[in-house]
Amino acid sequence: MTQAQESKTFLGDATFRAAVLARLREVLDEPDDFVPLHAPEFSGAEWKMVKDCLDSGWVSSVGSYVDRFERDVAKICGVAHGVALVNGTAALHLALRVVGVMPGDEVIVPAMTFVATANAISHAGAIPHFVDSEARTLGLDPQALDRHLDQVAKMRKGELINHKTGARIAAILPMHIFGHPTDMYPLLDLAAAYDLPVVEDAAEALGSHYHGRACGGLGRIAALSFNGNKILTTGGGGAIVTDDPDLAWHAKHLSTTGKLPHRWAFYHDEIAYNYRLPNINAALGCAQLEQLKDRLARKRALAERYIAGFADLDGVTIFREPEGCQSNYWLNTLILDPDRAGERNALLDELNEAGFMCRPVWSLLHRLPFYSDCPRTSLPVVEDLERRIISLPSSACLGAI
C-alpha cells in the first residue's frame, strides 16, 4: 500500500468516526457535562416513602414496602409470586438452587452476557456451559443449542448427561441482553423435550415483552436486577419472580437464613443465606415502579431518535427490538458493519473524549481465565458481534417526550 493509499484509508476512518459523533450530538445535543451510560432517576415519591421507613423504624428486611414491592414486581412480570433480594446475582443463585441445580452440574448459558450470569452458576457449585447467540436477538440461539445437545448430550435414567464431561446438564439460563427478548418459544420447546427448567435472566428486561408476554414470566422462574444502572432502581437490589408457589416459598426461605417461623426460637433447617432486600430499599423501589410506564415511553422515544438519527449513515446500524417483541431498550446499541469493526476502539475513545459514555459489550465469558476451560459450542456469532457492538447513552431522561 502506498503512502497516499494509507492516508486515504486513515482519512476515511477519521471521517467515519466524525460522522458517528455528529449523529450522536444531533440525537443528544452537545453535552454540558459528561453523559453517563445509564443514570438513575428520582422524580416521584422516593423521598416520601424512604422517609416513612426512617420515621417508622422499619428499615431492615421486614416491612410493608417489601411486601408491596414483591406483589407489584410479580404483577408486572405476569406471575403470582415475587421474592425481593439484595441483588440480581443473589436472585440468579437462589433461582438455580430452588430448581434443583446441584454442585457439579452444568447450566446452559450464553457466552455473551454479563459475568454475573455465569458467576451465579459458579456460586451454586455448577459449571457454565456456553452456547452461541443469534444476531437478530443478541440472545441465546435455540437452533445452535438444539444442534449442540444432539451432538454432546444423551438422556440417561431421566437426566440429560453431557457424554463428553460426564456431568448432568441441569438447566437453561437465557439472558435478555440490553432489554431485548431472547427467542423464548423454541427455547422453551427444547427445554421441555429434555425436561430442563428454564431460569430467565431478566436483569435488564423489566417491562419488555415477548409476543405479548412479559419477560420474567416466560420460564419456570426468573431473576431481576434493580441496580443503580437499571431502568428502575432500589439502589442495590434484585428479585425472583415465578408462578410456582413452592419455588417462591423455598426462595424466600433460603433468603432468610432458612429460619423456621417461631415466636422466639432460632431454628434453621438448611444451609441458607441472608439475601433479603431491606424495607428501605423496597420503599425506593415502590416509588420507582409507579413511574415505570412513563419511563418505558421515554426510553422508546429515545430509541426511535437513535434509529432515525443513524438511519442514513453507512457502516452502522442501531439494533432494533426483535420482530414480535417490545423491548424496554435498556441500552441502545450501535452495531458496526463488519468492515468497520476495526474502528471500534478508536470510536470508543473519541466518543468518550467528547463527553458521551459509550461502552463495548462485555468480554465474552469463555475468554475469561476462570471460565476458559468450561464446555462450549463453537461461538462464531458472538465472537463477531463482540468486535462490533457499542452501547450508547440510554438514560430515560434523554428521551423526554
TrEMBL record:
Gene3D superfamilies tied to this protein: Aspartate Aminotransferase, domain 1, Type I PLP-dependent aspartate aminotransferase-like (Major domain)
EC number(s) recorded for this UniProt protein: 2.6.1.102
UniProt cofactor(s): pyridoxal 5'-phosphate
Superkingdom of origin organism: Bacteria
InterPro entries referenced in this protein's UniProt entry, alphabetically: DegT/StrS_aminotransferase (IPR000653), LegC-like (IPR026385), PyrdxlP-dep_Trfase (IPR015424), PyrdxlP-dep_Trfase_major (IPR015421), PyrdxlP-dep_Trfase_small (IPR015422)
Pfam families for this protein: DegT_DnrJ_EryC1
GO biological process, one term: polysaccharide biosynthetic process
Protein name: GDP-perosamine synthase
